[in-house]
TrEMBL record:
Keywords: Copper, Disulfide bond, Glycoprotein, Metal-binding, Signal. It comes from Bimuria novae-zelandiae CBS 107.79. The keyword Magnesium does not apply. InterPro entries: Cellulose/chitin-bd_N (IPR004302), Starch-active_LPMO (IPR052282). Belongs to the polysaccharide monooxygenase AA13 family. This is Chitin-binding type-4 domain-containing protein. Residues 1-16 form the signal peptide. It comes from the Eukaryota. Residues 17-189 form the Chitin-binding type-4 domain. One of its GO terms (molecular function) is metal ion binding. Its cofactor is Cu(2+).
Length: 205
C-alpha cells in the first residue's frame, strides 16, 4: 500500500520519456502554435519527450486548442509545415537506422509504422512490433539496446501513397501499459521512384 502510494507521489510527471533522435524527428515551430495553441507548444518546448495524455490534459485549459487542426494522437500534434526542411527520401528496400532517446522507461508495447497523415491510418504492417516487454527497467541503460537502436526496411507499395512530403510519416509509438502513458515521435519522409529497386531485384534473381 505504502509503496503504491509513494510510487504515485513520486511518479515523474513533467520530465518524461522518449523521442526519435535519428533520423531527425518532428519538432515545434510556428505552425504547431497555430494548430494546437501556445500551451501545447510550450509543453513540448519544455520537454520534447513528454507523453500524449499530459498534453491532452493541458489542452483542456487552452481555449486556443483546436482538435480539428491538432491531433495529439498523431505525432503529438507536431506539424509537417514546421518540418518541411527535414524530409527523408526513401525507396522500397532501403534500410533506415533509427535511434531513440529513451529517457525514462515504462514497460509496455510499441511499434514503428508508416502512418498516412490525412487519415491518421497505419499503412500496411508495422515495420517493428513489440507486443510485450518494451522499455523495461528504471533507467535508459535497463532498456535493451535493440529497442533503442534498430533498423527498419522501407516496404514496397508506398510509391504513390507516400510520394508527396507531408502525406506520410514514420511513427514510433510506445504505450507504457502500467503507467498508461503514450509516446509518439515522427519522421517525415517521401518515397522516390522504385525503379532502382526493381532493377536490383531483377539483377539478383
Ligand atoms: C529535443 O530536445 C532536446 C533537448 O532536451 C534537443 O537536444 C533536441 O534537439 C530536441 N529534438 C527535437 C526533435 O525537438
Ligand atoms: C501501433 O502504433 C499505432 C500508432 O502509430 C497504434 O495506433 C497501434 O495501436 C499500434 N499497434 C500495435 C499492434 O501496437
Ligand atoms: Cu512516466
Amino acid at each position: 500500500m505504502l509503496s503504491i502510494l509513494s510510487s504515485l507521489l513520486f511518479a515523474p510527471t513533467v520530465l518524461s520519456h522518449g523521442i526519435i533522435t535519428a533520423p531527425p524527428s518532428r519538432a515545434i515551430g510556428s505552425a504547431i502554435t497555430t494548430a494546437c495553441g501556445q500551451t501545447i507548444t510550450n509543453a513540448i518546448k519544455a520537454d520534447n519527450t513528454s507523453y500524449v495524455e499530459q498534453l491532452t490534459k493541458l489542452a483542456t485549459s487552452d481555449t486556443k486548442f483546436n482538435a480539428a487542426t491538432c491531433n495529439l494522437y498523431l505525432c503529438k500534434g507536431l506539424q509537417y509545415a514546421d518540418n518541411s526542411a527535414n524530409v527523408q527520401t526513401w525507396k522500397a528496400g532501403d534500410v533506415v537506422p533509427i535511434k531513440i532517446w529513451l529517457r525514462i522507461p515504462h514497460e509496455g508495447i510499441a511499434n514503428v509504422s508508416i502512418v498516412s497523415t490525412k487519415q491518421n491510418k497505419q499503412v500496411g504492417e508495422p515495420l517493428k512490433l513489440w507486443t510485450k516487454g518494451y522499455a523495461p527497467g528504471k533507467t535508459e541503460k535497463d532498456v535493451p539496446l535493440e529497442q533503442r537502436e534498430f533498423s527498419v526496411t522501407v516496404p514496397n507499395g508506398l510509391e504513390s501513397t507516400c510520394a508527396t512530403a507531408g502525406d506520410c510519416v514514420l511513427q514510433w509509438w510506445w504505450l507504457g501499459t502500467a503507467a498508461k502513458q503514450t509516446y509518439e515521435s515522427c519522421v517525415d519522409f517521401k518515397t522516390a521512384a522504385a525503379s532502382g529497386y526493381t532493377q536490383e531485384r531483377a539483377f539478383k534473381a
